Structure formats: C-alpha cells, structure tokens
Amino acid sequence: MPEAAPPPPPLLAAASSPAAAPLQRARRRQQQQHRRGWRRPRGLLAWGALVAFFFVMNWWMFSRLQDPAARSHFRLRRHPLRADAAARNRSSLSTLEEVAGAAKGKGPHRVMLTRLLALAAHALAEAETRPEPNDLWEEPINATMWRPCSDQRDWEASEGTNGYIMISANGGINQQRVAICNAVTISRMLNATLVIPKFFYSNVWLDKSQFGDIYQKDYFINYLKSDIRIVKDLPVELQSLDLEVIGSLVNDTDVMKEAKPSLYVKKILPILLRNRVVHFIGFGNRLSFDPIPSDLQRLRCRCNFHALRFVPKIQEMGALLVERLHGHRSHLLPLKDNLLGQFAVKSAPRANKSDASKYLAVHLRFEIDMVAYSLCYFGGGKDEEDELEAYRQIHFPVLTELKKTIKLPSAAFLRSEGKCPLAPEEAVLMLAAIGFKHSTNIYIAGAEIYGGRHRMAAISHLYPALVTKETLLSPSELEPFRNFSSQLAALDFIACAAADAFAMTDPGSQFSSLVQGYRMYYGGGNLPTIRPNKRRLASILVKNGTIEWQEFQTRRLLCDGSGSGT
C-alpha cells in the first residue's frame, strides 16, 4: 500500500485559502527584509576590501622608500657613523600608517597633517629618480648683493675712562652672544672699559660654562682693542664695593627691551660717572637695532662676526664634525677660518673627492622649554597640557603668574598667526614640498626633541639619511662636552653655519637668526637659508581639508627672501 503523501507545509496549506493572503504577504515582506539585511554586510565588506587595497598600496609605496634597490644612490653609506644612524631610523617603524600616526590628534590641523604626510611619502618615492629643482641649493638673487664690511674702522680707539661696565648674561649661548656684542657697543657709546662678561647659571640650560670655556679671551680683547678697552677683571680697588648698595646694579626691569642709545646716555652714564662701575644683570636684548648710528652697528657686527672665536677644543671637534658631513670637500675659506681656526686645514680638499657630499642642516627648535614657553598646543591631549603647565610653573614662573592676571592669546590664535614653532612632522612637509629628495643628507641641530622618538618618526623615515652630532661623533669624542649645553650648541652652530643649505623651523629663534647672519656675511650668496612661512602653513593645515600634494607644493611656504626659490 503506497505511503500517504506528507501533509503540505503549514504556510503552503494556508496559502490555498483566500483568508491566508494577509499572512502570505507578511511572510514575503519578512523575507525581503532578511535579504536586505544580508546586503548591508556584503556592502560593508566590499568597502572594507577597497580600504584595505589602498592601505596595501600605501604600505607598498612606503616600502619602496625603504628599499635601497628602489633608490639610485644613498650617499651616507660612505660614513659608518651616519650609515648606522640611518639603519636605526629605518628599523624603528615599518609602515606608512605608523609614520602618519606621529601626527595623530584632535582637530582639523592634525587630521590634515596626517593626510599630507601620507601624500608626501608617495611624492618622495616617485620623485627619487627625478632631478632636484635647479635653485634648491641656491640663494635668491637679492642675497648675493650683501658684502661684508664690519671689519672696517674709521675711528680712534676709546680710552674707556668713564668707568667699568660689567655684565652677567642670562640664557643660552645665543642670548649670551647677543648680550656680549651689545655690551661692547654700549661700552664704546659711554667711553667705558668692558670687563670680560660673566654668564649666569640657568636652571633651564644647566651649564656652568663661562666666557673662557666657549670663546678665546685674548683674541677677543686684541681684536677689539682698536674699538674699546677690555680687561679680564675689575680693578682691585673696586672689587670690594657693594654695587647694590651704591646703586650700580642694573637689571632687566631698569632697562626696557630694545632700548634706544639715548636711554643709556641719560640713565646709565650718570651712574657710571658717579660710581665708576655699572653691573648689568640679565641684559637680554637690551639695545635696539634701529635707530642706532651706523658706526655703532658696525661695531656690534664686528664683535659677532670677527671678535668671538670659539676655543680650540670646540674648533677641533667642529672641524671633525664638518669633515664627516662634507666628506673632505673644500669649503668657503673665510667661513672655515672664522669657525675652525687652525683646525680648518684638516678639512682641506684631498685628491680623492668621490666621498664629497652636500648636506642640509635643520634646526628643530622643539625642545620642551620652547614648546612650553610658546603656549601652543601640539596634539598631545590633556597629558601634554598638564606636562607643559608643570614645566612652566618650575622654569617660567613669571609666565605662569602672568596667565593668572591677564587673558593671553589662545593656542589656536597663536598657531593661526604663525607664532608656534614647527613640530618635526610639520617641518618635514616643508622640506618635501620645496623639493628635497628622500636621499638628502640632513643634519639635525638641537637638544632633546620634545616627544622623543615618536615625534621624530615622520622626519626620520621620510628622510632616513638623518644624523646629529650624537650619531656622527663617538661617545669618547663627545665626553668633554657632556653637561655643557652651550658648548654642545656651539658644535651645532658650526655644523649649521657650514651647511650647503640651512633650514630654520622657528624664525624667531636667536640661534637660527645668528646662523643665518653668519651664512649671509661669509657665504658670498652661496649659502641659502630656508625660512618657513608658518602663518601660511597653519592656514593650509586648518582650512584646506582636501588639498592635493601638487597644489600644496605650489603654495608659497617660505618667507620672501628665503632660499630654495619656493
């Protein structure tokens, strides 16, 4: 007997009845929604696959930057110390995502910065086989018109009979250098004898160096003897005077910044004539540049460009630094003679010039003191804000108190006005945009960068041929300079002044300004200095969320009169 057919499924059985039509339509809608629900995950999967594809392409392009076979030449391999440094840089990060991650943070500025870093990596990979811009290593035409003239004198030596001027300069080597030359100028102006300057010990710089530890005393005295009288110590009969009691101590609150010469004649000269000695305490930027008689301005330049020569210890190590950077290439003799003295001959041209190389020096003024003092924000969130505020309370208490009494400009406003120092990840965008190739030899000047290795990730990977004095010189060579920040800064000064091109990241930095002046004075129009237009760069990073790399390159990122022709 055949088996009975199985009963129809309940839905099918119900469908045979007209009364079941509403139930059938409801079931059909449920099935359609179920199918649409599966389409969404499939769409997301497709989108994810597309994103993954672009990420893999990004990774591949960046790996091309790291592959020596993809580059035609890598000059720094010739120097073991520099090659080791480049190898360390290459091994610290492995993907483009990690490089861009160095710029992560909140706000449109950080988002745009991350995007441009990725675009810069692509551009550098593609441009490695192309020639550099013709004017990349050249000064603009107007810079070649300058001619040195401060060594010319048209007056008799001052006898210094009105008394003695002493200064105790504060700050680092750059502030001290400015203070020294201002003191020389004021001594001539007041017909006073200058006592070799003293340097304050600073809780920021932590350096006990005095004048004779950095500069040659006898050379300084002899070179300026046709201008002013200089002695090493105050006469014995004046050393016992209580200068504070007799009113001969003059601090920075008594003399305004950029004071005119007339103030010194009216206010300081009477004290000098009455007490025979005046002691300036601090003395930071206390003499104007304009208006000032041209012969006094020439004297100030003569002090800076001629009279202040580094001691042999610094000259010798500076010569070694330049030799390892330039690879025995000949250099401009006036500059080398001033910076390196008798040790300049060690860097003379040799028969085999195959290891000669160009290098770009970059002053990254991004140490914690500058970052804290700037009152700017650099994407580190509350941890950064708390850390910098704690640093300000210890090292800049006056600024901390000022914040309590008046409303200071916001971090966003300071950035929009170009008042913030460039972070390393911002500086690298400028270098890439104006045409420096991935294989460019770069010397980084400065102390410990705020944020350390993470902050340096982008620049050290987009430009792996990157060195510092710490990687070029051995520990034993650096040992005599340990714990002397001003002497270490002097080595940076030599390396930057002698570079084929020099890029500053904070045009307000006295170090960068002094280096730029040296290069203009001795360079003969052949030593370009690159000055970023920080206001324009900030505007691009905040307001141009979709800008492409080619357009970014066409923007004028440098100040007028800056090198590299951009």
UniProtKB/TrEMBL annotation:
One GO BP: fucose metabolic process
Region annotation (Disordered) ranges: 1-38
Bias type Low complexity, positions: 12-24
MF GO annotations: glycosyltransferase activity
InterPro entries named among the record's database cross-references: FucosylTrfase_pln, GDP-Fuc_O-FucTrfase, GT106_glycosyltransferase
Alphabetized CDD domains for the sequence: O-FucT_plant
Start-end of Pro residues biased regions: 1-11
Assigned GO CC terms: membrane
Sorted UniProt keywords: Carbohydrate metabolism, Fucose metabolism, Glycoprotein, Glycosyltransferase, Membrane, Transferase, Transmembrane, Transmembrane helix
Membrane topology: Single-pass membrane protein
Cellular localization per UniProt: Membrane
Pfam family of the protein (one): O-FucT
Bilayer-crossing regions: 44-62
PANTHER family listed in its UniProt record: O-FUCOSYLTRANSFERASE 2, O-FUCOSYLTRANSFERASE 2-RELATED
Family affiliation: Belongs to the glycosyltransferase GT106 family.
UniProt protein name: O-fucosyltransferase family protein
